[in-house]
Amino acid sequence: MADNNVQLGNPAVVGLAGFGLTTLLLQFHNLGFCGLGPVIAMGFAFGGLAQLIAGFMEQKMGNNFGFAAFTSYGAFWIGLCIIWMLNHFGIYTSTGSDVGVFLVAWTLLTLIFWVASWFIHGAMATTFTTLVIGFLLLDAGHFGIPILNTVAAYVLIVCALCAWYMMAAIIINGVAGKTLLKVGKPWINLNKAPEPATEAVGDLRFASESAS
Question: How far apart are CA 18 and CA 177, in angstroms?
């Protein structure tokens, strides 16, 4: 008989790591620090495939937010890399405004995750706030104000580091057996009765009640 008490690893650590690393690499490229090759490689492997796997594992954990967010942004990275590859080979090439429309659609989807993040904890809300700002700047940058692409790069570096902070909180707090890295309280809490200060395995709501 299977042991139902086996504690599973938290798939969010992989999803957040992949999201943060590929976002960081792309901004390094946008700022001229590296070519597109490393971004495409990690976009397919880490930001894409690994994030998709993390999302599917979140579904098994019953976490709708993690399921939707990780699979969505995993698909985003695979789709973006396909656009770059198609442009490289001259197949169904996309103009700057075409990519702008692509980014606007993703901005609208990100707004849904942003609102949901208000109810999780401060670190999550901050991550999605910087992501929304970054997308809005990229939207404007692809429709006639190119300098905003550079501004977006710096904002999205902050976003990537916020994602890594959440990843670090899950890993370090888990191995330490206590909350060393706090993630803050929800920006909006509709629950009148305080919940117990526990860290949920496999859920992005880790350590939220124990944070100051």
Answer: 25
Q: Count CB-CB contacts under 10 A for residue 175.
A: 8
CB 83 within 8 A of CB 99: yes
- C-beta separation of 27 from 154 below 8 A: yes
As a whole number of angstroms, the distance between CA 145 and CA 163 comes to 27
Q: Report the pLDDT value the prediction gives residue 6, as an integer from 0 to 100.
A: 72
pTM of the model as a whole: 0.90
CA dihedral 142, 50, 171, 179 (to 10 degrees): 50
Q: Which residues of the chain register pLDDT less than 70? A: 1-4, 192-212
User: C-alpha distances in angstroms, 200 versus 179, 207, 208, 209?
Assistant: 13, 8, 10, 11
